[in-house]
Description:
Layout: E1 2-5, E2 12-17, E3 20-28, E4 53-59, E5 66-75, E6 78-85, E7 91-95, H1 99-111, H2 120-124, H3 129-143, H4 152-177, H5 198-203, H6 229-250, H7 256-268, E8 275-277, E9 284-286, H8 291-300, H9 309-330, H10 336-350, H11 375-390, H12 402-418, H13 433-449
Antiparallel strand pairs: 1-2, 2-3, 3-4, 4-5, 5-6, 6-7, 8-9
Helix pairs in contact: 6-8, 6-9, 6-11, 9-10, 10-11
The structure holds zinc ion (ZN).
Zinc ion binds next to α11.
Amino acid sequence: MEEIHNYPFNSVIKFKQPGRSFSYKVIKEGTYPNKESLAYTLPPNKYRIPDDYIIETTWGRSTNQYTVQCFINYNDNKPVFQVWYGKCFEYRVSSVKTATDAANLFHKHYTSQKGTKTSGIYLFGLQLKILDKARDRKRCAHVLKQIDQCSNSTLTRRATSTGKHMITKFNEEVPKFYNMEEIPQGNLSKEWTINKNINKLIEKNNYYEGHSRKPLFDMIPLDHWLPDELHVMLRITDRLWSLLIAELVEQNSFNDTARKIIIDEMKKIKVNFQFWQDQGSKTWNYTSLMGNDKLKVLQFFDLTKILSRRRAAIVRDLWDKFYELYIKMKDPTTNAEDFKNDAKNWLTLFLTPSEGIPNTREFKKGLYQPDNITPYIHVLVYHISEFMTIHHKWGLKAFSCSGIEKKNHEQVSYFFRKTMKDGGGKKKSQSSAIVEILQHENRTLFYNHNNIPLNCQNPKTIHIKTQDI
Ligand SMILES: [Zn+2]
């Protein structure tokens, strides 16, 4: 079976089959009516029957060659088949039954004596695939305008529906490429408590999954390690801040203007803060803040200056609730069980998922992902309450390292302000910076202990003129 054509550029279609061949000239391609009224030829072929259709069909050879014109028009939702024949197509037969019935009528009136019968399907060219396709294409073209004929609002609507269509397809395909199952570490309902035993690890370094080396401090039982509230606050605040900056970078708004706004806002809350760009990697660095400054940022930084009002409110809520947790963590009267619940609720807030389809009005952007959780966040949520229970007698604040941190800060400041920083010409008499610091501390302690006021005046050199006697 073969169709030879250059349709629609040439309206002639040659159709060849062993034993017969037809030549068609398409006069009117026709259209398919809508589903409700569309009629089909009989099984097994069940070709669709077009409406408003005219084709001129020629078959046979030399003296036995015939040419007829076939019409199909739907009347009362039913196709009417007509065959026009004769030199000027002046005769016609008509059937409301089938194409074959119309063909039979035609043969009866015109060619029966000559004994050639033609199937109605071929006579009407209903088997022609190219016409079938062309009608389908026309049907689509009827529904969809060409892009240069669309108004702006149509284009927007089309783009939106294309996007929706694609996200549906995308979501269908995604599970084939990514594991959508929750990974065990991401299981928020799991109760994480300290259950490892240092003695097992001393016996066998890889006793627990994930351990491979000899423990560094194998003399300390694992439940004697205490999280330091100061560092919980410092490191989680760092995380919240860097997530904020990452969000600005992501939405392409981390520019000079935004950096200036941040610095100004920091000035307003009396925090000394700067940005600077790394020469090599071009990444932006910023001042690493001291504990007190971090608390100021956590409480008072006005997020609406750099985020939309709605977004700022969500992030502000997360920051406020973290600050509350920090205060409760230090408070010896906090109930461990309550703290556990509060901390878990905070983590749930931290992990608020997005809702709806991105870039639509209904879309609600969530907060952060499970892989944004740091070890300190894990400790805050799952272990702080545990330690509160264990060390109820003292309270966590008893183990705070903030005193040591303060001392470290003072010594570092003293190193830069008052010592020769181990330099200074390498004279033999020159003591090392650490000795200078120790001596300074010694003196401070002595003054404190003996109540010696520190505001004594520096010694002055006095020149005395002696008179000649
Ligand atoms: Zn843990």
